Amino acid sequence: MRLQNLKFDERGLIPTILQDRLRGRILLFSYMNKEALALTLQTGVAHLWNVRQQRILQHRDAAGKVHRVVDILADDEGTALIIKVDTPESGAQRGEASRFRTSLLEPTHKSSEVSIVNIPSMEIGLMLSGLFQLIVDLERERPENSYTAHLFERGLDFMLKKLGEQITEVMLAAKNEARQELGHHLADLLYHILVLMVAQDIDLRDLLAELRQRAGLPIQPLPQEHRST
Asked: Rounded distance, CA 159 to CA 37, Å?
């Protein structure tokens, strides 16, 4: 089961069961959104969507302790998750019969680690989404002493000039095999590309649809609640 094949509902949530991996006890029924799943994978501690408070919370038991995640399972259709955790009473792992048997973790993961193939992709996706929204906010608010706001105030020609300068810097760093400088200039280039996207009303979802098409993947309908206006 690949992360992109998970099916989140119209609210962006997927039903999630927290289970003691040793005894098979159901500890909690809750939900996750994509950000909560990403945080769980990054930290190895369950993060769940609190429907009542409408926010992500790190799961803690009645004693205030967190439980280490040891496996994440999806059902065959990718419509629900089981998060297996080690509670303070957990010891050696034993098998449990369940219809949830498709692991999202790498087959070679150690029980004390949470390792997933696509976690760097998830991290950069979250980062790009946050950065894109920041640029949208700066374009709207135009705060003083903001370089990004200055780009929008100077207009498209100035914006393209700066973008061209960043491309040149990337080319020179690559030619000189200056790896650290190349990483720095690539980040600058990516930022200026995002600024241009905001200026031209191109959303990250538009870019994703184009990339999926080029990769021969089906173009999925995406929710519009976060699209910039």
From this structure: 36
Residues 11 and 94 in one domain: yes
Pairing between β-strand 26-32 and β-strand 68-74 as defined by DSSP bridges: unpaired
64 and 125 together in one domain: no
Q: Residues 17, 89: one domain?
A: yes
State pTM to two decimals.
0.52
* Domain housing 11: 3-103
CB 168 within 8 A of CB 185: no
CATH number at residue 69: 3.10.20.810
- Going residue by residue through the chain, which has 229 residues, state the pLDDT in tens, using 9 for 90 and above: 566 678 899 999 999 999 988 888 888 899 999 999 988 888 888 999 988 899 999 988 878 888 888 888 888 788 889 898 887 664 434 443 444 555 665 554 443 333 333 445 555 766 787 789 899 999 999 999 999 999 999 999 999 999 999 999 999 999 999 999 999 999 999 999 999 999 999 998 888 788 878 877 655 544 444 444 3
Residues in the chain: 229
